[in-house]
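Standup notes, structure subgroup. Blocker cleared on the zinc ion input:
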Amino acid sequence: MPISDSEIAQVRAATDIVALMSEYVALKKSGRRWTGLCPFHGEKTPSFSVNAEEGRYYCFGCRASGDQITFVREMQHLDFIEAVRLLADRAGIELHEDANAGPARKERQELLSAMAAAVEWYHDRLLNAPDARPVRDYLRSRGISGEIARQFKLGWAPDEWDALSAALKLSEKTLTGTGLGFVNKRGRSQDALRARLIFPIFDSAGRAIAVGGRILPPDPNRPVREDARVEAKYKNSPETAIYSKRKTLYALNWAKDDIIKSGEIIVCEGYTDVIAFFGAGLARAVATCGTALGEDHFRTMRNFATRIVLAYDADKAGQSAAASVYQWERQHEVDVLVARLPKGSDPAELAQKDPDALRQAVANAVPFLQFRLDRVLDAANLATAEGRVRAAEAAMLVLAEHPSELVRDQYLMQVADRLRLEPSALRPRVGELARNPVKREIPNEPPPEGPARRRVSSGSMPRPGLEALRLYLHFPREAKERFIAQYFVNETQREIFEGLATGAPVSEVVDALERRGEEDAAGVLSQLVVDELDREYTSDDVTAVVSQLLRRAVSEELKNVERELRGGTLSPDVAMATIRDVKERVSMLETPHGELAEKDLRSWLLTRRAGDTP
Ligand SMILES: [Zn+2]
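Run returned:
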């Protein structure tokens, strides 16, 4: 059963577009609009504009436009129905189709509620259960207070087979669907995590979607049991219908605000590193969830910040696939930097020992290429000529990976200087390596093509018509009574006006125009609705625009009169009188008698063009 138009309207009305978009993009209030960096194309200055009241967005850069539904469709690669369902979920609206359709969606909803309940249950165990006392002691010893435990909703999975499944009475389907447990060989429900500290993982909207579990280090006061199994330090939820590892960044839900404020995002390796950064006053750290940093992560991150600081252990950072990093920098217009942590230390340790050093490492983060070069040069023996030549060869290999010749050359001079060599001696070798790379990581797949963007521009349209529509949209109190469809000589503008005059929300007007194949009109309206009025308008402005529109509309109509005169369907007397009267009224516009003239001309156009519109 399709979703009805009234339900779609209800979903739109219930969805605050600014709140929705803020889950993905940093928006700032600017006049009556909200603006930000466009999530659909890479850019460094904002050309993305949102009209909160009408629930519309438009990008002046790539011309992406739409409403709440289009937005989630594009961001999450959903079809129309899926997007409406997602927004209905979010707004707590039950769609009529729910009764007999959308089992996948209902299932998703069940998994999300089960995960939320599990996170609460684990959290409560950590805070209150007697068996969690050693865990609480351990956390305190690592500098993790009760306050932090509450902030990150940390939990405790007790050392029992089925404590969670039994307490929450989860069905087999939900248990396995969330990855919270499984059915064992004897056909009984069993928890996936036991005797582990729980780090719940939320999506950027703050919904629990997975959990990570860490074993505690062995208690030195307790003898290790003979039969103790060797277990992985971390055990995480598997990929499920609600959890995609390569799309998720741990802690993004908490870090978002600070990331937007600072324009910087810190990427680290584990949950405890993230918590350490928050503790050191850098509440803009996130971690990947058991996968390497990849294309999907960059897509998410670049919507929030353009400065991305990797805070990995130095060896790990050095191993990041350079070709991919440079490609992401270019493709998403972000800068990837590396925080130089003291050798052998991770952020969690450093935050405890010397939080200042941690903050410094982030503040002094160096570009990725610089970091890689430094590692090569720092490891080299520069005392001998042979050592310097070997270092030069290694440095050239690193340099050659960067796609920009200009960037390569900047660093080449630095390398030459450090190795006491002539830049001209190194340049040919770098050029050669760049053209014939020794080995290169396979570049990531290009981004999938987004829905076709409208290429319509309002730039070539008559100004007065555009002004009139703008006033009509943004200054309705004064404008509503003064405009009629017959004033618009431009077909597209008239279509838009007629849509708006029905009083329907803009998104519905856009939909209706699209359904009728009026793509141009839909595109222009999408843009107009996010335009900012550059000042407060008065009724004088409306009068001026009405006059301009009228002059144009009247002169078009007079051509018809002349045509009729030539064709003999209008007698010369009547035609002449009409032309004289109309021209006289036009000359009176914007004089003290303007109001009267406007009324007369309006009536004349209405009678002349009564049959014009269906
Ligand atoms: Zn754009």
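Discussed briefly. The radius of gyration is 32 Å.
Next: hand off to the docking folks.
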